[in-house]
Amino acid sequence: MFTTRFARTILAVSLCLLVSACSTLGYYLQAVQGHLQLMASTRPVNELIDDATTTPELRQQLEHASAIREFAVRKLALPDNRNYRSYANLGRPFVVWNVFAAPEFSVDLQQWCMLFVGCVNYRGYYARNDADGYAGELQAGGADTYVAGIPAYSTLGYFNDPLLNTFMRFGDQEVARIVFHELAHQLIYAKGDSAFNESYATAVESEGVRRWLTQSAPEKLADFAKQQKRREQFHRLIADYREKLRALYETSLAPEAERRLKTERFAEMQRAYADLKAGWGGYGGYDPWFSQPLNNASLGSIALYTRWVPAFQALLAQEGGDLPRFYQRVRELAALPKEERTETLDGLLPKTPD
């Protein structure tokens, strides 16, 4: 049964059909159809838990997810609504596949402007073939592209987002991470600033998981701290080489020379990752990412989620770990013009030694 929000979405797309400037009708239609199919397959969590045909494994997963959902409200001051109180098994490993793109000689991701959410640095498809097809079109035009499977996304409160098999399969800690991240988006969202939105939600996610483990499984905190350390080192590696490439692209070298040096920089990054792995005792959690073609778009896809995480962590520390006060500070940042917001966040980043 269509809700008012569904009706508004269908109306928006229908109006789009009448606007000559709307050149991405196929994209909007696949997005609406994909989401409607997703919502049609959902069932309330409580109903599934009480259903005798639900497998014991799924019942336990749903019970744990429900506890995580309540923790998000009671301990993290995240929205208390109908999101993540239903479940859908999509029968596939990812809910969408995001296409990232950047020019051959730039580390800045391309933007696409969408209904409702404003401009973002990726374009999502419900079918892998559609994502690959669009990435191929961009590549043919000379762009670096990267296609990433995404286990969850937020509709920012337009719909009641469900728990999905695409992330439930990874275990409770991943469920907590994603639920906290996506609910953070519903609380605060700055249109047209993907790096701000994703860095803020990632900071909330990390702090939320730490607090959740402290309460529910303190014996796992040391492991979590080790994961976080490796994650920070991985992100620092990506950021360092992204800046090296940015400096390269700002030179006036001939394209052939620039292309050769670009290849060398990515080879250097692969070697630096091998050194990191050695320091991690051989841990290879980031091997799948490094096994794919490395380019400006794949680098940008990582930077998008982490650029200002340390700045938001510093902001939370300034507020003594008080999340409601932190959210208010983030709202104030979101209300600023983008350039002023960026300058403020840069000022919050920890200073690195010369």
In short:
This protein is mostly helical and about 350 residues long.
Account of the 3D structure:
The chain has 354 residues and is mainly alpha-helical. It has a domain at 1-40. Helices cover 60% and strands 8% of the residues. The protein has 15 helices and eight strands. It has helices at 4-17, 25-40, 45-50, 56-74, 128-140, 165-168, 172-187, 194-216, 221-249, 255-279, 287-290, 296-306, 309-318, 323-334, 338-348; strands at residues 43-44, 86-88, 96-102, 112-114, 118-120, 123-125, 144-150, 163-164. The strands form three sheets. Strands 1-2-8 form a three-stranded mixed beta sheet. The longest helix is centred in the middle third of the chain and has 29 residues, at 221-249. The chain starts with a helix and ends in a 6-residue tail after the last helix. The model is unreliable at 1-23 (pLDDT under 50).
Beta content comes to 5-15%
- What is the percent of helical residues? 55-70%
Shape: globular
- Low-pLDDT segments: 1-23
